[in-house]
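FORM 12-B: Structure-to-Sequence Request
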């Protein structure tokens, strides 16, 4: 039986990945900051799907948290076959309104953690001749949106570059770029989302289904939803900043773990 490690696994897209992969019969390693929520999620998944579920409490905004995930990924006696780098967050307000430390934490979670965990997972996967890594980015990668959009653009470019480097090894990488996705965090964080049209919302389950289908097909970029595929296509054609307002108007104060 194969094993998947998912960061930011207790809610939203991370929880949807956990449900789907458990339903597919994969054992799980769930990573998040909240130990109590991790334990509850693990118990529910193990009971509901009959798989083995391990938990790892780690804050990926810290060196200690990233190192704990690296260590688990390098454990050759308990190989991880699928890595889902989903943990992430947004900062509310314009750039100069956000504390510098919050921006630095974002770089740590969105960039350094993904760089280090991908590096930790790849050698074992390549040696076994199989594996998959999904790095969750965002449609915001293609729309100017301060540090958040910049980090997600890095995720896309990093993932597609590494995918080329390991082509033919049996290991597949994907940058997943969802648009607005309904999760509990919008309500819990008090995000102002009334300005987002109904058609703009995706379900986390749909995002995961499209991601895994694209991964099986070897697609290094997955943009769930026809409307968001169109948004990305247009954003690539327009001058920089042409569609920036679409994402910048949305409130941004949530963490996906």
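FORM 12-B RESPONSE
SEQUENCE OUT:
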């Amino acid at each position: 039986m194969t094993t998947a490690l998912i960061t930011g696994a207790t809610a939203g897209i991370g929880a949807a990945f956990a449900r789907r992969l458990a339903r597919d019969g994969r054992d799980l390693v769930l990573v998040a900051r909240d130990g109590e929520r991790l334990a509850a999620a693990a118990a529910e998944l193990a009971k509901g799907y009959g798989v083995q579920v391990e938990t790892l409490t780690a804050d990926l905004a810290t060196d200690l948290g990233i190192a704990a995930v690296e260590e688990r990924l390098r454990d050759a006696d308990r190989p991880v076959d699928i890595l889902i780098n989903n943990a992430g967050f947004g900062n509310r307000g314009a750039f100069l309104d956000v504390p510098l430390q919050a921006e630095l934490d974002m770089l740590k979670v969105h960039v350094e953690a993904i760089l280090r965990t991908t590096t930790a997972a790849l050698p074992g996967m390549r040696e076994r001749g199989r594996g998959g890594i999904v790095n969750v980015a965002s449609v915001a990668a293609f729309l100017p949106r301060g540090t958040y959009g910049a980090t997600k653009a890095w995720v896309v470019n990093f993932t597609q570059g590494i995918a080329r480097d390991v082509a033919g090894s049996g290991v597949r990488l994907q940058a997943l770029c969802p648009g607005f996705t309904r999760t509990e965090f919008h309500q819990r964080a008090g995000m102002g989302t009334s300005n987002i049209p109904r058609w703009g919302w995706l379900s986390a389950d749909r995002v995961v289904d499209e991601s895994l289908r694209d991964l099986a097909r070897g697609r290094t970029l997955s943009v769930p939803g026809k409307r968001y595929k169109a948004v990305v296509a247009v954003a690539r054609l327009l001058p920089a900043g042409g569609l920036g307002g679409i994402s910048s108007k949305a409130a941004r104060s949530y963490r996906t773990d």
